[in-house]
Amino acid sequence: MRLLIVEDDGEFAGTLAEALAFRDIASEVVSCAGDADILLNTTSFVAIILDLSLPDIDGLELIRTWRAKGHREPIIVLSGREGADVRIAALHAGADDFVLKPFVFAELHARLEAVIRRYDGRSDPMIRAGSISFDMLTRQVCIDGTAIHLSVRETDIVEVLIRRGNHVIPRRMLEDQLFGTSDELGSNAVEVYIHRLRRKIEDKAGVSIRTIRGIGYMLVAN
User: Fold this and answer.
1) Could you read off the pLDDT of 97-136 as tens digits, one per residue?
2) Is the pTM higher than 0.85?
3) If 0-12 CB within 10 Å is exposed, 13-18 middle and 19+ buried, where does residue 166 land?
4) Which DSSP letter does residue 53 get?
């Protein structure tokens, strides 16, 4: 799961990113609308956390622009602006939720999981394929109900593949989701993680991770 955080307070954004990382949620942090727009046009994100007070454009206008361009990623607005009128304006602009600063991180995390489930069309946090299941709340991977041990990035790959089961995931999208735009990685990093996952799950879970040459990978039930 990779999020886009748009927040011009660097210290606050860093603290938020660290708290999310503790929950095994990776994030890209930018401080202005211009940088956010570039990333959103080149990288896949599961959700966006957006502050309204940005240095180059008002957050409400940015939401309207993204929605007009067809971006459908769930957006949670963070703002210190109080009043029902601000919350209503954010929702009318296209935001999915509004969290007033200061806030309790556990509440933000719960709201984040809720909007992601809604966009997935699920009320059940569990995603399944074959005998394998992925819990979006705990990020636990199980085979036939028994938890298996995976590294953080192996878990990330399972999440991306199982969310889009029977659809090809471009290799570049996996790289962006797993490593971000700033991390350095070897040319065969994705292949290494895919190979490890195949050894751990394919014989037991009733699924296969297929390589679509020149394109990417897909998870299919056997």
Assistant:
1) 999 888 888 888 888 988 887 776 555 667 888 889 888 7
2) no
3) exposed
4) B
What CA–CA distance (Å, rounded) separates 42 from 37?
Answer: 9
Return d(Cα 153, Cα 6) in angstroms, integer: 24
- Both tokens of 207, joined, read 């699924």
The amino acid at 94:
G
Burial of 207 (0-12, 13-18, 19+ CB in 10 A): buried
User: What would the DSSP string read from start to end of 155-184?
Assistant: HHHHHHHHHTTTS-EEHHHHHHHHHTTT--
How does DSSP assign 139-152, residue by residue? --EEETTEE----H
Strands 47-51 and 75-79: parallel
